[in-house]
Write a structure and sequence with these properties.
This protein has four helices and 21 strands. By secondary structure, it is α+β, with helices and mostly antiparallel strands. Helix 2 (103-140) packs antiparallel against helix 3 (148-176). It is elongated and about 170 Å long.
Length: 374
Amino acid sequence: MSRKFWFIGSIIFMVIVLTALEYMEDTIDIVEKDNINTVREVSVINKRVGTHEGVIRVFAEIKPRWAVTLKAHVDGEVIEVKDSALAGEYNAKGDVLIRIEDSDYKAHLASAKQALAAANLTLFTEQDRAKRALKDRKKSGIQSESSAIPLQLDIAKKAVSAAKANIKAAEMKKIYTTVVAPFSGIVTHRFVSIGQTVNVGEPLLSILDQTNLDITVSLNNIQWQNLATQWEKRTAQIKSKQGDRVAHAKIKRGGGFLDPKTRQHKLFLEIDNDERNNVLSGDFVNVEIPGRAVDNSLLIPASAYTRESTVWYIDEDNRLRYFPSNILFYQGDNLIITAPISRVAGDFNIVINPLASFIAGKKVNPSFEGATLR
C-alpha cells in the first residue's frame, strides 16, 4: 500500500514539473519576441552643413605691462617711508614713497653752482682779455695773434660746460633722494625701514602696474594655421577657469619669431581698459581667440563624437548610419568637425549619445532634443 502511494505521488509531481517548465518556456519566447520587435528610442539633434568660425582655446597668465623693483640711486639714511609704500597699497604715478636724507646732495649741488659761477667769471675774463688783445693788434698793425689767447678762451668755455653738467648731476642725485612711483600701480614688497642706511643699487620696494594688463599666448603650428584671417586687431574672449567671461582682450601683435624654448608662435594681447578691474595680474585664464572660418563643416555636441572618430546619424528611413570625421575646433561642449565629402549641404539628424552596441542599418525611433545647432 505504501509503495503504491509513493508511486502515484511521484507521477503527480512529475506532471506538475513538466507543466511548469512548459509555461516558463512559453513566457521566455514571448519576452524574446517582444525584445526583437522593440524599436530603440535614440536622442538626436538636427544640424546643418555650412560655414563655421572656430575658436582657439589656450591657457595663459595675465601679467602687468610694467613691474619693477626700485633700487637706491644714492647712498644715505632712510628718513621717511610713506604709508603708501606698504605692500598692497595703490599709488598713482609720481606719488612719493620713500625719502633719503639729502643734506650731502644739497651741499654738492651748492658746490656745483659755485663752480659754475667761478667758471663763468673765468670765461668773462678770458673773453675780455681776447677783446683787448684784438684792439691792441689793430692799433699796432700786428696781424698775427698769440696762440695762447684762443686756447685759454676755449678752456674757459669747456669749464663752464663741465660746471653745468656737474650741476645737472648734483640735481639728479638730490632728486633721487625722493623715491616716487614710476607708474600707477600696487606695491608688492617693501625692503627697507625708517632709519636704515642704504647704498646705491640696494632694493627699496617692488611695484607692479595694475593699469595696463597684457597676456602672452603661445600657439603651436596647427593653432597658428587655424587663426582667423586678418587676426590682427581682433578681440579675444577672456574667461575664468570656471568658464565665466571676465573681460575682452585685443590682439595687438604677434608672429615673426618662434619662442627659442618652446618653438611656438607668440600672440600679444591687451586687456580692455574698461574691464581691467575684473581681473588681476597673476590670474590664469582661458583665452578664446577667433579661428578661421571652415566651409563644409558641422557644429555638433561633443558627446556625439565617438572614440573611433565617427559620428552617428539617422537617415530618412530612421536607420542608423555613421561617417568618419576630424575635429577642427573645440567650442565648449560643442565641436566643429568635417562633414562628409558627399554631403556639402543639407541637414543631419545627429545622435547625441551614440552607443557601442549600435549597428549600421538598424531601425530606431528618433527623439529630437534642443534647438538646431547651426
